[in-house]
Specification:
single chain, 4-stranded antiparallel β-sheet
Length: 289
Amino acid sequence: MTLPLKSKILLLLLIASISVSCQKKEKTDLLQINVLSNRLKEISGITKISGTAFIYAINDSGNDNTLFKINEEGEIVKEFKIPNAKNIDWEDLTFDNQGNIYIGDFGNNDNKRKDLTIYKISGIDSEKIESHKIQFSLEDQKEFPPKKKNRNFDVEAFIYKNGSFFLFTKNRSSKFKGETKLYKVLAQPGKQVAKLITSFKIGNDPNDCFISSAAINTRGNKIVLLTYNKIFLLTDFKGDDVFQGTIKKIKLNHFSQKEGICFNDENSVFIVDEKRNNRKGKLYKYTLE
């Protein structure tokens, strides 16, 4: 039977409505903890130092040089102005086993920055805060910016592991290949060159492949990579190539602009997303096992 054009349109609208309704009801194990303060509406990274009850957070470009201390309910407890540090595009946070916090000022949407920086922040507990610059370049980037098909130099995620930083790129190439690059930078003051360890294909969907944050657990045997709707859990890795191990893709069944992830304990993580239109940013918790 051939339907009139009007009937076809109504049928298509009905199918679309049912599809959207089903998506809204899709179950997620992501536990919402709280709505974040408007002071964190452009939150871009979080970290939680082992053995403490507080999370540290930052905003990205267009904001000032403030490091936020929040509790596990997502409420701001304190704000710290970081001396001798400018927020060009702060994107992620990590920490070392001495309790130093590192701010990744390496957001590079247009792939043209030549001032990529990691700030080492010490003295948070004593409130005698000091910051030291670690500047770096990416060894394989020769053009600023490169051709649009080769724009895979935007770093938005990193971890600290065994005296070095491991950086993960957000692929912005026009001919999307679903690859992230993994770089290694020595955690030492001064100017460094980030060594390219490998490129790894995560998938074909940008929602799977736009890595926005990373974290490593205290034991150093689990790494999580965050996208807008998934977590990639890396285990059983040895050496620098952390993709040479077991990789588990975890579907969150929850799409939002997720920007930060950190371990709460060995088996659970905190996740944050930023404010988008009328939707406020939130703090979530997720159990990995």
